[in-house]
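Appendix B, Record 12. Input sequence as logged:
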Amino acid sequence: MTVPRSGFIKKSQKESVLKRVVSQLLFQASLDYPAIRGLTVTRVTLSTNKGMASIFLYTPEGPETFKQKLEALKLLAPSLRKALATEIRARYTPEIRFKFDDTLEKLHRIESILDQISKSEKHD
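Logged structural output:
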């Protein structure tokens, strides 16, 4: 089943708005809760029915630090969802799920492998 183009655009637009608003809300919350400082919202994806929003976060300290911060995020999730509902004007506010975004770590690994390959080719 393919998603109609207009539905895809609306979903992408809503994901973009959610990313912007969640970033602002998390920044404001981090001023009061130092346990969530250092997190960056990298992307937001909505489920097909738009009932669940997966918020991908990155911290330079890695996934272990993220797991520690996740406990504080879970406590803040209901109030974050309520604040999100007041900020965006939508019929429904999606449930929130936090995930670690390891895309940057994968990118660094790929770059280091490519650097090693280029160095070995220069020596040959």
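Residues 5-32 form the longest helix (28 residues).
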